[in-house]
Amino acid sequence: DAGVTQSPTHLIKTRGQQVTLRCSPKSGHDTVSWYQQALGQGPQFIFQYYEEEERQRGNFPDRFSGHQFPNYSSELNVNALLLGDSALYLCASISGTSSYNEQFFGPGTRLTVL
Amino acid sequence: KNEVEQSPQNLTAQEGEFITINCSYSVGISALHWLQQHPGGGIVSLFMLSSGKKKHGRLIATINIQEKHSSLHITASHPRDSAVYICAVWAHTDKLIFGTGTRLQVFP
User: Fold this and answer.
1) Could you tell me the CA-to-CA distances from A104 to A26, B15, B25, B59 in Å, in that order?
2) Residues of A with CB below 8 A from B83's CB?
């Protein structure tokens, strides 16, 4: 049973470019959350997708957008990249939306913006 | 002030020592996670608890809902326990809020 997978593992972009990160949830999970983790900091919640809809959103600008596909996989898109967007982007999946269900995390995508 | 505070930020121990990491939070929660993050980034969930105490091998997690405090204990620490330990709470807003983590290094 594959856990949460993310691609790519590493990515280098320049300011102003756009990037798309991908996540496949753990088998049987239908909810995907995205987090940004700057160096030396704890992860920050970006948004959560359930039933192909954005269910919750953290304090991130509209440059951060996402999508969930019918197979529950998800994409995170970031437009007009800034140097401060350099971070580890983590995806986590859960079955349903209950906070009593355990989240499983992917290995992350490390984005560097030059 | 962060909604989830961890202490200490950094911790160094000798192999075999008993380790305690503390987490305090200021929001109402449904549950609390203890997570482990190794260099390279992958996060592993260690515990999810909403009351009392849980034990898994050498790891013990406790939570006191009234005092809004949780502790993670590691007995007989080992160099392979070296990692960042993160406390995260499921707030009643249905969002997961993370602490900044405790970096643990265990030396042989």
Assistant:
1) 7, 29, 22, 19
2) none
Whether residues B33 and A100 touch (CB distance < 8 A) is answered with no
Look at residues B76, B95, B73, B83 and name the one whose alpha carbon lies nearest to residue B4.
Answer: B95
pLDDT number for residue A27: 92
Q: Are residues B96 and A100, on separate chains, in Cβ contact within 8 Å?
A: no
Terminal Cα-to-Cα distance of chain A (whole angstroms): 37
The answer to whether residues B106 and B76 touch, using CB atoms and an 8 Å cutoff, is: no
Phi, psi of A85 (to 5 degrees): -80, -5
Burial of B67 (0-12, 13-18, 19+ CB in 10 A): exposed
User: For residue A31, what pLDDT is reported?
Assistant: 93
Which residues in chain A land under pLDDT 50? none
The alpha carbon of residue A74 and the mean position of all alpha carbons in its chain are separated, in whole angstroms, by 8
| Residues on chain B bordering chain A, Cβ-to-Cβ distance under 8 angstroms | 4, 30-31, 33, 35, 40-45, 48, 50, 86, 88, 90, 94-101
Ranges of residues in chain B whose predicted pLDDT is under 70: 1
Instruction: Yes or no: say if B72 and B61 are a contact pair by the CB < 8 Å rule.
Output: yes
Q: Buried b vs exposed e over A21-46: b needs ≥16 C-beta within 10 Å?
A: bbbbbbeebbbbbbbbbeeeebbbbb
Closest CA to A92 of B95, B93, B81: B95
